């Protein structure tokens, strides 16, 4: 294992070399205390163009390798991530603020996509289709799409990269990663490990910089880039989609969420409380599948709420490097202001602050529960992305479904019940790409992750996750006597 300081880099990684994007630099801050972790070279559109050209040059030889050859390198990369788990986790906690135990979990989770797709790349089977005449034979083969641009967010500095580049690399594509300027250090650390694993120059590139819009525009409009995979806000997803129109790129979009968590009258209340805690307060509520609205049947509302508030009161906020901390800071001051506004809006519309409701200091917002939530409050329609849990009340299954689906988003949803028939009916009625039944943590490399409506398109992970990185080619052989 390398010491975490040996995994801290300050330049973009392009074509197997560490490249200064420009004479400008930017600072990566620790959100727990505002301290500077490192100054990085500030890449721009020209830097991204260099990376695209490198990936384009590397594409043909990489795509010509067998799936097994690519898998050997990917498995080495996976092993290096696991071997350096503690150092990567420390870097991740320093730049994102998430508690160290969550960062360790993310290293395992993120690395799992590399391991999974290393094997899945060997199973990109085609088909032999019966000919439509006696002298014809029909084959279908699958080929890599080309250069992939991966634009990733700050909340999962490793997993959002590996979930995209794992299937891309396994299929034979080359990649250009543009990580968030808030958390680029984890991306650069795994780029170093990718080099050690043996990826040829230009296959895996990482470009860091502050000007996200300029770099995203270059990726979207470049004729050398065949596909864009983006995780982030719906607003930015719409902008990227528009920028891709001229080149008709393939797009995978994992966008905003507004996850409902429904607790039916027959649910195991203690299990539901544990699931809601896990689903709401992971990384201080800063994930796209975090519970946004808790909907509780009126007959168990008081019991559930009392137990939930008690569980929330046990949280310990602080610097994520402290092993006893389970709630870290929000990513920046804008996030604090956004969460404050949600609470103020809720209180002005009849909501009751049952615990928390204010910031602890300039970096931390206290874990918060809002009782008597209603549909007029802003978080009924908008994603909170913070440690605020509003609890709504419902009386019938039909009302619960209506409330749950009353949003433009459709990523993750959750519900708790012990009724088998209800499980089927509610699962089918919920307008979401992911449904968790009696479970608050649903992400895995073996399962398809993605949403519908304004939460995006495409799936990541599982056997379905590699499909967006291939082209299907039909081959007809004629005049066979």
List the helices and strands and how they pair.
Blueprint: E1 12-14, E2 17-19, E3 25-29, E4 36-41, H1 45-64, H2 67-83, H3 85-96, H4 100-120, E5 127-129, E6 137-144, E7 147-151, H5 159-171, E8 174-178, H6 185-197, E9 204-206, H7 212-221, E10 225-231, H8 234-243, E11 250-254, E12 259-263, H9 269-281, E13 291-297, H10 301-312, H11 333-348, E14 352-355, E15 368-371, E16 388-394, H12 397-405, E17 409-410, E18 412-416, H13 420-429, E19 434-437, E20 452-453, E21 456-457, E22 470-477
Parallel strand pairs: 7-8, 7-10, 8-9, 10-11, 12-13, 12-18, 13-16, 15-16, 18-19
Antiparallel strand pairs: 1-2, 3-4, 5-6, 6-22, 11-21, 14-15, 17-20
Helix pairs in contact: 1-7, 2-4, 2-5, 2-6, 3-4, 3-6, 4-5, 9-10
